Amino acid sequence: MKGNSVSDLYRIDGPTIITLDEKQSVVSDGEIWIENDKILFCGPRKVFEYKGSKSVKRIDGKDRIAIPGLVNGHVHSYGALLKGSVDALPLDAFMINAIASAGNRNPRDAYISAILGAIEMVSTGTTACLDHCSHRPFHTAEALDAIAQAYADVGMRASLAPMFSDLPFVETVPFEEDMPGEGLTAWLPKTKPNTEAYFETVEEVLDKWATHPLVNIMLGVDSPQRCSDKLLKKAGTFCSKHGIGNHTHLLEAKTQLVMSKIRDQRGFVRYLQDCGLAGPLSSFAHFVWCSKEEIEAVSEAGATVVHNPSSNLILGSGIQPLLSLVDAGVPVALGTDGFNAANGSMFEKIRLATLLHRVTESDSDFWIEAGPMLRLATVNGARMLGAENKRGALKAGQQADIVLLDSRSITYTPLGDPETQVLHYESGNGVSEVFVSGKQIVKNGEVSSVNKQSIFDEAIEISERLKRDAKIAIDEAKKMHPNIKNMVRRVHAAECGPCRIVAI
């Protein structure tokens, strides 16, 4: 991996520093010293005196705003080759299109899709992510290695959570009269998913990447309504055996709320607790259609919830009750979701999460201010990835995951309150420099660790091939859309718990 030597000593001189530490300090004329992979000093200029013998590499930060690296708590790298493929579909219809469009991929396809997504993320200030990765027709050690290698080559942190389920799609949504028999038959799996092979593959890759400084493996079995009791219990045992975390979709759409009551009247969180999949190392993406009881359960479990406001809006899934979760003490991180459902900029997601909760809560006394909102995408994201007190803030002793924003643009002219301005005005286009573990991987807005143009060219070629290969499957999936939409309308018309759609 290209990058700086671990012996390098850097001084970022003169930036405005948004520390996002416990005091949420902002330093208007600061210095950041980086030695090896850690922050040696972060504070006002001319306060710190370096007493070592290393030569110092100075970076002019006079026209920069420094923030901690952002954490994308939920992304699907496979979607980077499927941008712009779906519009105006509810989640359940979107899912069958995604399954059909993904096609049969080889390890090189998986690598290019992952590295394409990684480039977009680091270019817009994301230094770490949880990739709920998928590979069709099934996971292989070679494909997972390729995805892991993509992040390592870019120099970005990544936790890979390979998705897996063992129930056919038609058993995971509340179809009744909505789907004709021939439609059901068409979507029955040709071969049953091999559960044992999945765990063997994950174990093999887990061992291989166990000591890597940037990439690690966790478990990512899919939404509980898509998994058998046997699979979920085995997943819990597997996580306990290896001391690793687990990640899953949970209560993303109202149809999933209906399915949760079929599985367990107590709700999915209590059920996952019984399976050993709801604890401090667990994270749940979306969590839109949650009841008060589910919120209490996830708070007790100490799990993290990942808010994906952009994809929830694009797919019409609903609005997560962010304030209720925060009030209950639930740590909330933020994510983009798949690249086929949202772009890779975390700045947009922070802003959307802010604006949505201000619409659903009319009393401004309860609104979350800029600093704490930015901490959702930094401190809380780091906690979710098992790096609490190691990353997420700019302070001495933490790993040097740092993003510099160019303040010379119209976005920051004139500069008011830095936290407020970053939250409400930054898109990701202002990212100038990015450091991960003390290594500079973005310089002057460009990713320096890989040949971006050659990756773009190959991505276009692969995408065209996948489109050709998937055309028949996509046409068949489209035939199901009217039936799925009818099912969604019926479910939303029924009274079955909390309302997460704002009605006018």
Description:
The chain is of the alpha/beta class. The protein has two domains: 9-68 and 395-447, Roll (Urease, subunit C, domain 1); 70-384, Metal-dependent hydrolases (TIM Barrel, Alpha-Beta Barrel), CATH 3.20.20.140. The protein is 38% helix and 18% strand. It contains 17 helices and 21 strands. A hairpin with a 2-residue loop joins strand 4 and strand 5. It is globular. The chain starts with 8 loop residues before the first strand and ends in an 11-residue tail after the last helix.
Task: Give the SSE layout.
Blueprint: E1 9-13, E2 16-18, E3 26-27, E4 30-35, E5 38-44, E6 56-60, E7 64-68, E8 70-75, H1 91-102, H2 107-123, E9 126-131, H3 141-154, E10 157-160, E11 163-164, H4 181-186, H5 195-208, E12 215-217, E13 220-221, H6 229-242, E14 246-250, H7 254-263, H8 268-274, E15 282-286, H9 292-301, E16 304-307, H10 309-314, H11 322-327, E17 332-334, H12 346-360, H13 370-376, H14 379-384, E18 402-406, H15 418-425, E19 431-436, E20 439-443, E21 446-447, H16 452-479, H17 481-493
Parallel strand pairs: 1-6, 2-7, 8-9, 9-10, 10-12, 11-13, 14-15, 15-16, 16-17
Antiparallel strand pairs: 1-4, 2-3, 4-5, 7-18, 18-19, 19-20, 20-21
Helix pairs in contact: 1-16, 2-3, 2-16, 8-9, 13-15
